[in-house]
Amino acid sequence: MSKNSFFMIITLTLAWVVLMERLTIATALVGLAVSACCVFFTRRVIPLQKSEPVKIFRLVIYFFYLLGQIYLGGIAGIKVILFGANVEIVEIQTHIRNKTLQTVLFNSVTLVPGSVSLDLKSDTMTVLWLTNKAHGPPPVENSGEVIKGRLERLLLKAQKEDKNID
To answer: Is the separation of the CB atoms in 90 and 147 below 8 Å?
Structure first.
């Protein structure tokens, strides 16, 4: 068993215990068995590519920032609901080269209310974007900064540099 599989089994077991809302030996053992089966069958059925390395501490900081943005986006979403919305589909370039972090950014954009990620190809994201109708049509030229802005900058800091580049 690899170190990653062991870590995944422990994480899933902890999630199981939390969801069951009781810490007993029986709950922990059942969670351990279910988690081990899930990891075993997932490794057999879904061929996973190895993810690119990232700076874990930076991802933890990113997670807390993202939670704040989800709440702030929800408050802004209330204004959009009250005053109407402009809808625009925009293509945004990302400077992130790490495919794992590109996927994190892609999914984060959808988590923040007011935008929905539609497609990710190479370094281009297609996003459906809602803006407040009271402010007029959305400024498409700076839409990338408004939508991904600080999210992307924090993920760029989580990207590990390639040591093979001369």
So the answer is: yes
To which residue do tokens 């999914």 refer? 107
Burial of 44 (0-12, 13-18, 19+ CB in 10 A): exposed
pLDDT tens track for 43-96: 888 776 676 778 888 888 999 999 999 898 888 888 888 888 888 888 999 999
pTM for the model: 0.68
Q: Which residues contact 11 (CB under 8 A, 6 or more apart)?
A: none
Between helix 99-111 and helix 56-83 the angle, nearest 10°, is: 30
54: nearest Cα among 97, 92, 6, 1? 97
Distance from C-alpha of 16 to C-alpha of 28, rounded to nearest angstrom: 8
Comparing C-alpha atoms, which of 132, 42, 46, 55 is closest to residue 100?
55
Helix (H, G, I), strand (E, B) or coil at 35: helix
What is the Cα–Cα distance from 24 to 26, expressed in whole angstroms? 5
Read off the DSSP letter of residue 95. Answer: -
Q: Is 119 helix (H, G, I), strand (E, B) or coil?
A: strand
Rounded Cα distance between 131 and 125, Å, is 18
Strand order in the sheet with 85-93: 85-93, 124-132, 115-121
